[in-house]
Amino acid sequence: MKTKPQTMTLVEKTNTEHTIIETTLYDLIEVISAELKADEQDLIVPIVSDLLNSAKSNLVMV
Questions:
Q1: Residue 15 falls within a domain, yes or no?
Q2: Most CB atoms closer than 10 Å: which of 28, 32, 43, 54?
Q3: Is residue 16 assigned to a domain?
Q4: Range of the domain at 60
């Protein structure tokens, strides 16, 4: 089932050269899943893991 993420927020920061997106982990997984073919679903965990381990993303747990 492909659905649109519910809680993505685009946050504009004036002192940065990057666009910052705030979302939930669930919505991130949902978006990645929607972009992959049915036989590529096993790539979701490596993609999310790579994003979280890179300097391009931060995980904030509340």
A1: no
A2: 28
A3: no
A4: 1-8+24-62
